[in-house]
Amino acid sequence: MTDIHDRVRGAVLASALGDAFGAPYEGGVAERLLWAVLGGRSGKRRWTDDTQMSVDVIESLLACKKVEQNDLARRFARSYRWSRGYGPGAGKLLKRIRQGTSWQIANRTVYPNGSFGNGGAMRAAPIGFFYGAERERRLVRAVRDATVVTHAHPAGQDGAVVIALTAALVCQDCPVREILKRLRLHIQTVDLQNRLAVAERLLRAEHPVLPKQVASELGNGIRARDSCVTAFSIGLALREAPFVRLLKYIREVGGDTDTIGAMAGAVWGAACGYRQLPEDLLKRLEQRQFLEELACRFADAIVQEHF
Questions:
Q1: Residue span of the signal peptide, if any (predicted)?
Q2: What is the pTM of this model?
């Protein structure tokens, strides 16, 4: 039980660190300059919408004891602040929910076919821990239910399943081969299936895979197909490496570094736990005490639920 508690805490904090320390390196010159201004306001490493929406998910799970879509929609909309780095599509959607539009309508008003971005995946790991790998079908259904509130496209939901189920399985020391096998049972879109096949080849490589190769073959963009399996692969490949090496690797992969950092951080944290996180980085994290206390309450609830 102590180990599970440590791993859940580690995943929550590692995800926030991956987000906060990846944010300054996201995108091009304009994006980096904007974040240099926004990210320096608190005097700490400021986290983005990735962590804010993960916080919303955790608080909703603690309050409702399950994925409750209307509650999630209200929390997402209430927490929205453009200065957290929300994308323009997410901003429009959440503003509409805040103004009274139901999420069932809002989630297709910006993108008629639904968003296929990675915004559902960046906040999915807590759902994986809450439902647990031993309840795999319920876990996957809950992840899709939580994701569809903002991401109605199957690819966006598949990306979330990749991160949530992987985090839950890694927490139980499941071998990589078994994780890949289990994921294939639930991924519905061809693009994500193909990316998993590439990731399997890279994870089996005899020599270390360079960040540029990961970016080239798996992607580093904001679409779920271009970042979720990327983060999955990085988190698993570097799960025995120091956390600072993970951060450096993500920076070199480039692209959507904050979200890839948040997702890969959750996988790494599920494998390594809170005690392996570097204290010097935690000291520099915005609202550390709040995140620590929330992570502890969440871990307590999971231990009570499953053990």
A1: none
A2: 0.96
Which amino acids are annotated as binding site, given as ranges? 48-50, 256, 258-259
Q: Which two tokens stand for residue 255?
A: 């692209």
CATH class entry, domain 2-306: mainly alpha
Give the 3-state secondary structure of 148-188: CCCCCCHHHHHHHHHHHHHHHHHCCCCCHHHHHHHHHCCCC
- Helix axis angle for 88-98 and 69-79, nearest 10°, is 110
Residue 185's identity, in one-letter code, is L
Q: State the pLDDT at residue 41.
A: 63
Report, as an integer, the average pLDDT of 99-125.
96
C-alpha 76 chain-centroid distance: 15
Residue whose tokens read 């895979």: 209
Q: Tens of pLDDT along 60-91?
A: 999 999 999 999 999 999 999 999 999 999 99
